[in-house]
Amino acid sequence: MASPVRIYFVLAFALTWGIGGIGLLVGLWMPESQPLSTSSPLYYLAAYSVSLAGIVLTARYAGRGGLRRLGQRLIPWRSPPRWYLIVALGYAAITGIALQAAALFHSTPAAIRNWPVFFTGLFPAIVRDPGPIGEEFGWRGFALPRLLERYSPLNASLRLGLIHAAWHLPLFFIPGMPQTQASFPLFTLGVVSIAIFDTALYLRTGANLLLAILVHLMANVYGGIALDAHALNFFFAVEGIAAALVVIVGGLRSTGQLAPITSDGPVF
Q: Buried b vs exposed e over 4-39: b needs ≥16 C-beta within 10 Å?
């Protein structure tokens, strides 16, 4: 019998790519409808299906207790405020370094473009951008705890990051998607880096899921609003350097303080 985490990965890919395939067909029949644009309901349905799969499988394998534990991981005061500050300032530093590196190679100005848009776009992005909430109940809510039961934190992070990056692959071939501006290998480096950051936070904050959502939001907002296409690749590279530093300083070393939170067992 397939393990719950394998079932989750198959379901996440099948739902998202299946809905995306329907969108492509609709686009062939009605080109003016733009079914896979960021203004299309199909686009949001495809993205949110990842979290939906995680929530449904949590109920399937861990029952009401599992859903309760998943909800408790969203409690803001589950972790000290410094961790939220570390995420926000950390991504600000990554962005600043990426801009300076891009400017050094004369590809972009060494400043955030359009500061007003950045600040006004930061807060509504949590609703408008389907990535943070639409995905993290699956990748970090359901999959990460189960991978950590079988693999080391680094191994689990690499596996989840590579699978997460592969899940994005069709977006690189759909005109109008933000990913078409990026290099897929560097994008993969960025996604794996996020997986390392999230695992380190998971190990040190009692499996806080809200922080994983914040990391995803910061990465998307800084990368999508603050940077142009040239600086974006530098952004991914700096994320990779930061992730390597997290590993080097022992950020993925297990604290040994986490109680199991999955308790998988079919309940219906």
A: bbeebbebbeebbeebbeebeebbeeeeeebbbeee
DSSP assignments along 139-180, one per residue:
IIIIIHHHHHTTS-HHHHHHHHHHHHHHHTGGGGGSTT-GGG
* Total count of residues recorded for the chain: 268
Our CA dihedral for 109, 197, 49, 236, rounded to 10 degrees, sits at: 30
* Cα angle 250, 242, 48; round to 5: 100
How far apart are alpha carbons 196 and 8 in whole angstroms? 20
- Residues of the chain with pLDDT > 70, as a percent, come to 79
pTM: 0.89
Element (H, E) at 242: helix 229-248
Across the chain, what does the average pLDDT equal? 85
CB atoms within 10 A of CB 262: 17
CA 229 – CA 240 distance, rounded (Å): 18
Closest CA to 145 of 66, 86, 74, 223: 66
Q: Which two tokens stand for residue 46?
A: 């495809």
* Residue 224 CB burial class (10 angstroms; 0-12, 13-18, ≥19): middle
Annotated domain spans of the chain = 77-248
Q: Which residues contact 203 (CB under 8 A, 6 or more apart)?
A: 153, 252, 253, 254, 255, 258
